[in-house]
């Protein structure tokens, strides 16, 4: 019998921790838009499955945040409408799970242990079938060494197909990856299908875990536990096996209770702690990724959700009623030439048009044409000083938490598809979509793209603005300042 070396037992344990964190945080992400679609317009009513009873109001403007459900902490990490923190846990777990997977693959192939997992003959299929039938007939055949054919096939599938499949479908949902390689999400027939497949992959993992656990317990329990924890199961008794099993369960439980507790009781700390790892990593991976989207006119989705209620102030209403004749965009801060732009002045600058896919952090998508002023043109005209590292976009809209604003890096501001749009689908921007002017940053999630713009400020740092996390959503909902995935 082949031994279970230390690295293999260790990798298994690490894997259990992160897979379970990924499942719970994934369910948290799902709770923010508990509906699954196959088409990228994600049109309400066309979902193939939903986990909500809420009805969408037909008689008034509604926004996508109203579709969010509160899931219990028993299934979601951390639960209770915490998309921002759920995503922090999902990505940090994905990072460690991926690292663990790479180490595992490497050792598997360099140690020769791979022969246990990788079938080397097509006979594996008939053999697995035969073995499955023998199980059903309650007279199991003698199993293989060390795995029976069904087990080998399942492990092979999970390790070499299901794992990579989750990474591939997850990546297909990233706005930055889809912006740079618009063909990539199309492999999965679009981001909504990728999202649905990612969910189905999660169910396959859950099914595997349940079946795997049942097999471990029902079949040679003491030996199995000895093998996977101690490496050599010979002669371990039932009590020791139960002890080892309990050790496994308690360890996983402690990690989950700790991560849930710290998220619910100290959300800002959790955001900062995980952000300290993820923000620099995402900046280095995605900072230079430029959007190359140019979808065709026929791909435009007539349905396009709305998020954020239009400003409810007198000031904005007056501007609106006067067709924004008195509206001005103020540019200030660390620039050589601070100035105002009227809408007419902006419209005199050469218009840039693009047809791009929008991804909201909650999970819905839509494709639209946008027309407006390239941000780089504003940068050229206003000449930011050398100290300017970030750009703050402020809105006429305020809510209980204050004014809506978002911060992007100078680098993102200079990207070719970063525009100040006054046009959507060949018409002037409607009130709900951000009239008269909104930001489009095509490698980022929707919350970065401030609607109802009032001003643009160039700054060297953003710690002094709002609650200092780089935006209204970052400050109040614990989203991440880098919104590329
Ligand atoms: N001022 C302001 N801008 C905003 C928001 C908001 O609530 N207020 N919501 C953001 C989010 S989360 C998304 S997904 C997009 C939605 O744009 P749409 O309503 O045009 O679809 O706008 C972004 N811009
Ligand atoms: Mo969003």
Show the helix and strand layout.
Layout: H1 6-31, E1 35-36, E2 49-50, H2 83-111, H3 114-117, H4 124-136, H5 149-171, H6 175-180, H7 184-187, H8 191-218, H9 221-230, H10 238-265, H11 267-286, H12 314-321, E3 328-333, E4 339-342, H13 343-348, E5 352-359, E6 365-374, H14 375-382, E7 390-399, E8 402-409, H15 410-413, E9 418-424, E10 427-428, E11 438-441, E12 453-459, H16 472-477
Helix pairs in contact: 1-2, 1-9, 1-10, 2-11, 4-5, 5-8, 8-9, 9-10, 10-11
Bound molecules: ligand MTE and molybdenum atom (MO).
CATH class of the largest domain: Mainly Alpha
Number of separate domains:
2
Structural class by SSE content: alpha+beta
CATH structural architecture of the largest domain: Up-down Bundle
